[in-house]
Amino acid sequence: MHINTIKDVMPRHIRIMLDRTSHKVIESVEEIRIRLNKPIIIRTHTAEFGLSEIGDCPISKSYIATKQDLEGILKFISGFSLYAIEDEIREGFITIQGGHRVGIVGKTVVENKSIKTIRNISAINIRVAREVIGSSKNIVPYIFKNRRICNTLIVSPPKCGKTTILRDIIRNLSYGECLGESFNIGLVDERSEIAACFDGVPQNDIGIRTDVLDSCPKAYGITMLLRSMSPEVIAVDEIGKDEDYKALEDALVVGVSIICTIHGVGLSDCLNKPRLKDMIDRKLFGRIVILSNRPHVGSVEAILDVNNNFNTIG
Q1: Which of 92, 100, 233, 309 is the most exposed, having the fewest neighbouring CB atoms within 10 Å of its CB?
Q2: Are 233 and 184 in contact (CB under 8 A)?
Q3: Are 2 and 98 in contact (CB under 8 A)?
Q4: Closest to 156 measured CA to CA, from 144, 172, 142, 139
């Protein structure tokens, strides 16, 4: 974990607190939430801790974040030029070195019905980037048929590992790790969560044959990749808008395989979404991967083969 790149954007006194935090907590931390005039909270998958001069501690004894702390973090992130990250601030998050995503909230400045910037920052949430190399090894063989990657839909409730699994599928196919056959992959990384590009360089391992459109709306990105990069596979995270479905269908028409994710609890949730139900009814997805957090995050409940009436094959 690139925890040092998180420490690098912290004021010195908070950096010292993190240095004194137990190795066990540091290894499992998922989020660091810093709210104005509130205790700093470190979240793992199973617990919450405060942060103090002795390191991790009960939240009731945590250090209380000040306005200067939040301003200092933003200055370090921006290289002391907030103008340099103005576009990212407008989107509500900034990706820093190591692939960590820094979410911010505060007073939005709206101009012409669009958010121009965010001022008076009241909270910062640092989501720690985590790669789970090899997490897709039991999935990839099931999404390969007749020397092609099946059009695959990954269905998962929040915080059940869909982005982590998608990232590792991309890496696996790009290297040709499990199949002994590699693929050119186009990735539309709208929220900068999969490749987590920093200065144009992916901070996560997404393979050597993967081309990334970072911070690009999915519908635009799919079209751009089809026109310019000749991908064999296009991967996107969290489809949902009508234009997303239209772009996916455009890719399918020209023979490109699609791997995408969607929030949902099982197949029934998918069938409650009219556009998605239509695609499933027309058997446009050859595989549907159902994830859960039982017994652990990223557990595969089933891999469905829609050409065989949704038989479980995994």
Answers
A1: 309
A2: yes
A3: yes
A4: 139
